[in-house]
Design goal:
This protein is an alpha/beta fold. It has a single domain (2-166), classed as Rossmann fold (3-Layer(aba) Sandwich), CATH 3.40.50.150. 28% of the residues lie in helices and 30% in strands. The chain has 4 helices and 7 strands. The protein has helices at residues 2-5, 23-32, 92-113, 130-140, and strands spanning 13-17, 37-42, 55-59, 77-82, 114-125, 141-147, 158-166. It has a 7-stranded mixed sheet with strand order 3-2-1-4-5-7-6, sandwiched between helices. Keywords: Methyltransferase, rRNA processing, S-adenosyl-L-methionine, Transferase. Its EC number is 2.1.1.166. The active site is at residue 123. GO terms for molecular function: rRNA (uridine-2'-O-)-methyltransferase activity.
Length: 167
């Protein structure tokens, strides 16, 4: 995804929502290097315990988190990524709706904390709310696209929304 859309650069400040277990956090930390900053937020503890000096992890519930707290580290971020996902129940419509609510929260955080020109990546399960969510994102970003990774199962509803260049 990063190779295709060039999301992260050396020195970027990146907010990672739904950071546990830490694979995105590790990847982003390598790309932004020590001149960058990565803040991971998740309700669950981080599995990756040794953090480089330019990476922080805060255990918080994103739905209740006061995002102004992030401004202690950076007034604005270059990229906000969200790998938030609900606990699935097998009810595809219900799971998609809960995923949409998490994506909506991530978009609100991104709208508040992203600098102009910043990027947003958000996981969601496709459902009846997806079209409206895309419309909202197009009001905020110059380029919006749904991306399904090759590693995703063909029948999976999981997609990533890419929002580039915040207006």
């Amino acid at each position: 995804m990063d190779k295709r859309y060039h999301l992260f650069k050396k020195g970027n400040k990146v907010l990672d929502l739904g950071a546990s277990p830490g694979s995105w956090l590790q990847y982003i930390a390598k790309v932004v290097e020590k001149k960058g900053l990565v803040l991971g937020i998740d309700i669950n503890p981080l599995k990756w315990v040794t953090l480089p000096s330019h990476v922080r992890f805060w255990q918080r519930d994103v739905l209740k988190w006061e995002q102004e707290e992030a401004r202690v580290l950076a007034p604005f971020f270059d990229v906000v990524v969200s790998d938030l996902a609900p606990l699935t129940t097998g009810n595809k419509d219900g799971d998609a709706y809960r995923s949409f609510k998490l994506a909506e929260r991530a978009l609100n955080i991104a709208h508040d904390l992203l600098k102009p020109g910043g990027h947003f990546v958000c996981k969601l399960f496709e459902g009846k709310e997806t079209k409206g969510f895309l419309i909202e994102c197009k009001k905020i970003f110059s380029f919006v696209k749904l991306f399904k990774p090759e590693s995703s199962r063909p029948k999976s509803r999981e997609v990533f929304l890419i929002g580039l260049k915040k207006k």
